[in-house]
Amino acid sequence: MIYFELFNPITVFLFFVFTIVSGIFTMNPVISIISFLSSLLYWMLLPCKKNKSIHIFSFLMVIACTVLNPVLGHNGMTALVVINNHVVSAESLWYGAFLGIMLSSATYWFASYSALMTSDKIIYVVNAFSKKAALVLTMAMRFIPMYVKKARQINLSQKALGLYKDETIVSRVRGTLRVMSALLTYMIEKTIITSDSMEARGYFSGKRRTFSVYSFGKKDIVYIVTVVLLSLCTFYVSFKGALVYNFYPSMDSVSHSLLSLFGYFSFGLLCLSPSVTQGSYRLKWRYLKSKISHSDIRIPARY
Predict the structure, then answer these.
(1) Which of 120, 128, 194, 196 is deepest in the core (most CB within 10 A)?
(2) Cα Rg for the chain, rounded, in angstroms?
(3) Do 110 and 129 form a contact (C-beta atoms < 8 A)?
(4) Is residue 208 part of a domain?
(5) What's the CA gap between 73 and 69, in Å, rounded?
(6) Phi and psi of 36, rounded to 5°?
(7) ∠ Cα 66 239 41 (to 5°)
(8) Are 177 and 154 contacting, i.e. CB atoms less than 8 angstroms apart?
(9) pTM
């Protein structure tokens, strides 16, 4: 068993695509809770520096959706309170709460995705589908920071020349136009130089081969097949209507049929698969460390 982030980037990318797509297009409360708890668990298991403000953001998102949905929506049959002839229903309250939970789970999944998928992994995934798109993405990731830095240099040089004498709106607009004009000239020149350099090196002639440090092994194939099968099972159950849940005009009861339980089980395995992989690796590592005793360590004699 290996860390989930040590899988091939294509494998990781496909997992997040299938998981987010499977959970974001249904408002079934059980599916939303499974997705939220699984995303939170995996986010906590990630061995990386985490931004703890994401918990505050998710909590505020749930509160905001729960409060704003009854204010903006007027649906529902179960009235809880009447404020200025506006009825706050239990259905709209619960709908907003589960909508916030669904958005929070998507936030955690995307945060985990951004922590795992670095820029080189993203380029590798794009290159697997389109080499031209990967080239454009690579050049954009290189040129955009360079152009931003160049714009700052041009702006500072304009200030050093004394072209911002008066702090008026007209002066700022003229200064911005001068900076944009100089930056546009620099961009055109840099693009022509880059194009000529790539053509001189034979970049556009013949079939290109790419080098990558990432390998695609048997474990990636097994995991991708597992993810696809679990996703297809979830889609099949949803297509049969076993995962359909209506909040309006009155809340449905959660389905406990055999087909619904199968859909919950499939989606739960799909969402928990990276956490199981991560947790089993940690348990195995701790077990191996516990077997190492200090008595087995021999200190070499000094001569």
Answers:
(1) 128
(2) 27
(3) no
(4) no
(5) 6
(6) -65, -50
(7) 50
(8) no
(9) 0.75
Q: How many CB atoms lie within 10 A of CB 221?
A: 12
Percent of residues in the chain assigned helix, strand, coil, to nearest 5: 70, 5, 25
**Number of structural domains found in the chain:** 2
- Do residue 92 and residue 223 come from a single domain? yes
C-alpha 174/C-alpha 163 separation (Å) is 9
pLDDT along the chain (303 residues), means of 10: 75 90 83 92 80 87 88 77 76 88 91 86 82 75 83 84 70 81 86 80 69 81 91 89 84 85 92 84 75 57 49
Please report, for residues 112, 165, 243, 261, 279, the alpha-carbon distance to residue 264 in angstroms, rounded to integers and kept in the order given.
22, 67, 9, 5, 22
Question: Count of alpha carbons within 13 Å of 44, Cβ hemisphere only?
Answer: 11
d(CA 43, CA 63): 21
Contacts of 163 (CB under 8 A, 6+ apart): 175, 178
Instruction: Look at residue 300 and tell me if it is in a domain.
Output: no
Let me know whether 102 and 134 are in one domain. no
Non-local (6+) Cβ contacts of 101 within 8 A are 32, 33, 36, 62
**Angle, helices 119-129/9-24, rounded to nearest 10 degrees:** 80
Q: Are residues 21 and 75 in the same domain?
A: yes
Q: Give the C-alpha separation, 182 to 207, whole Å.
A: 37
Question: Tens of pLDDT along 97-139?
Answer: 998 999 999 999 998 888 888 888 888 888 877 777 777 777 7
Domain hosting 190: range is 130-200
User: What integer pLDDT is reported at residue 45 of this predicted model?
Assistant: 83
